[in-house]
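Exercise 7.
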Amino acid sequence: MATESNMSNICNYSHDVTFFYGHVGKVIREKWTTRDYVIIGLGLTVCLIVVLANLMVMVAIFMNRRFHFPIYYLLGNMAAADLFAGLAYTNLMLNTGPWTRMLSKEQWYIRGALIDISLTASVANLLAVAVERHQTIITMQLHNNMTKKRVVLLIISIWVAGIIMGLVPSLFWNCECDLDDCSTVAPLYSRRFLIFWAVLNLLTFLIMLVIYARIFFYVKCQSRHTSNHTSEVRHQTFVNLMKTISMVLGAFVICWTPGLVTLLLDGLLGKDSNANSYEKYCLVIAECNSLVNPIIYSLRDAEMRRTFKWILCCLCGKGVCQQRDPLSTVIDSPVKKVFSEDNQNADSELLATS
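Solution. The predicted structure, written as tokens, is:
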């Protein structure tokens, strides 16, 4: 009993969110300004577009049988993570500014956990895509022969990892029992957790970049030995797919690195980092990443672009969607050793630059 009483005195479980904000010197405004209304309005608009655009990617992959391969399932899961990020940012917009005062600690932790989950799911998914692509270069296949069951288990594992990382700060790795360890960007988070979180993600970025560098060097060497037309078509298709995925990875790294570096500096330097003066800009850049991927797919993938148009025509009521999947052409399994010339040409349309 004495021990529990001492822990209760040491820890600050009874204090609300404003106590921790005041401790680190992060100001919660009492009134809304015109600038706040503009930012919230634009932010919610972007979030709506993010949700709708990534929902369209998921529907396109589901409806078009040409996309029924492991790599596209993983890209679809990436779209799901971006959609989740849009919902997480919407929740953040509706619980920020003066509204922060009304949040309980549980609500505040949920607000941060949603963003943590979306980031973890995105990073883990990109790493899975990198590993999947690395495996396919051994035989220069366009698609991996991973079974649907394994893909589903992989996707479930990605989201389980995201949920675990999202729950870590609220369950035990926070600063409620050590006020000196409080972050200035996220006042209830432990600075040590932010260091761990930022370093883990930055190292994952580095690993993915190394994997893709190795893939491109391998493909470059293989291109010198492609002689017949069929091999050249498959090689070009493979290169186009790799360029699209690399653009997705590059956009993700560019958009999230400033925010992760900000968290790292906050964890290392605390108030001396002045992270609060630019963390909102980093958050805006990170939010934009969830909108970038559908744009990349539209610009790089003619088949995806046609599927988008078909979906929009169906939504507009135009008579072009009488068939469930009019755009798809059933192509041979990637594990078969014999491919027809027609299927090679169909494959070559995938992810071709318009």
